[in-house]
Design brief:
Blueprint lengths: L2 E6 L8 H16 L4 E6 L10 H6 L4 H4 L6 H12 L2 E7 L7 H10 L6 E4 L2 E4 L6 E6 L15 H11 L5 E6 L6 H19 L1
Parallel strand pairs: 1-2, 1-3, 3-6, 6-7
Antiparallel strand pairs: 4-5
Helix pairs in contact: 1-7
The chain binds flavin mononucleotide.
């Protein structure tokens, strides 16, 4: 493993549970792969622009022409980060049952017809190479299982988004009740670490 892309999409900085969980995963991976380079993309501190008129007009140009099209340069940079990474860690809160807006802005720049997916008669087919993506989701409430008190549009949405661009090796860790007392949060993180040690050693 030479390069990891770490996407952070919480507005809460060091207090963010998904970011702290991401830190644990990065610690583990850098211990396992001491020479690994970690590229950090902070989507709240350095927001990705929303799609504008020019992007919407130019987004269907050929992949070759897009390389020189100014309005597609942010998109090209973000796609290159995904392509270059051997693995992706995504730290994200759940906001209003789904992904936070800064992450949605990143998705809109990265999921591009004829660049990261192609259209076929039977639907969209991914153009990128598969790679492991580890998604750390923090939520204030319970979102999974029989005790869930709310819908979860985030998990199926992110699965669909990554598989649209060809990335199917997706794992989730849900850090539920992230506002609960610190002791139970530490247990969650320790469990996560133990689980990852089994996966990544
Ligand atoms: C705008 C906003 C919307 C939220 N929506 C939800 C939600 O739909 N479901 C939920 O369980 N928690 C929700 N929360 C709580 C966050 O998911 C929780 O605080 C979590 O810790 C955020 O992750 P972070 O610590 O990485 O920022 C919301 C928080 C904010 C600020």
């Amino acid at each position: 493993m030479e390069k990891i892309l770490w996407l952070i999409s919480s507005p809460r900085g060091d207090a963010s549970v998904s970011q702290q969980a991401g830190n644990k995963v990065i610690e583990l991976l850098t211990h396992r792969y001491p020479d690994v380079q970690v590229v950090v993309r902070e989507l709240v501190k350095n927001p990705v622009p929303f799609i504008d008129t020019e992007f919407a007009e130019k987004m269907f140009m050929t992949a070759e022409d897009a390389l020189n099209e100014p309005s597609l340069q942010v998109s090209e940079t973000l796609i290159a980060e995904v392509v270059d990474a051997d693995a992706i860690i995504l730290s994200t809160p759940m906001h209003n049952f789904t992904v936070p807006a800064p992450l949605k802005a990143w998705i809109d720049q990265v999921v591009r017809a004829d660049r990261t997916f192609k259209r076929t008669p039977v639907g969209k087919a991914g153009l990128l190479k598969d790679k492991p993506v580890y998604i750390l989701v923090a939520s204030g409430g319970i979102v999974l299982g029989d005790d869930a008190t709310q819908p979860d549009f985030l998990t199926p949405y992110l699965k669909a988004i990554f598989s649209t661009i060809g990335i199917h090796d997706i794992s989730f860790a849900h850090l539920e009740r992230a506002g609960a007392e610190k002791a139970s949060f530490d247990t969650i993180l320790n469990n996560l670490r133990a689980e990852l040690e089994i996966v990544w050693g």
